[in-house]
Amino acid sequence: MVPGPTLRLRVGDTLDFTLVNGAIMPHSMDFHAAEIAPDKAYRNVMPGDSIHFQFVARVPGAFMYHCGTAPVAAHISNGMYGALIVDPRTPRPQAQEFVFVQSEFYMGPPAGKDSVRSMDWEKLLNASPDYVVFNGVASRYATHPIPVAEHKPIRLYVVNAGPNRISSFHVVGAIFDKVIADGFGRPFDGMQTWNVPVGGGAIFELRLAEPGLYPFVTHAFADATKGGVGVFQAGNATGSVAH
Ligand SMILES: [Cu+2]
Question: Most-buried pick from 43, 67, 211, 212 (CB within 10 A)?
Answer without folding.
Answer: 67
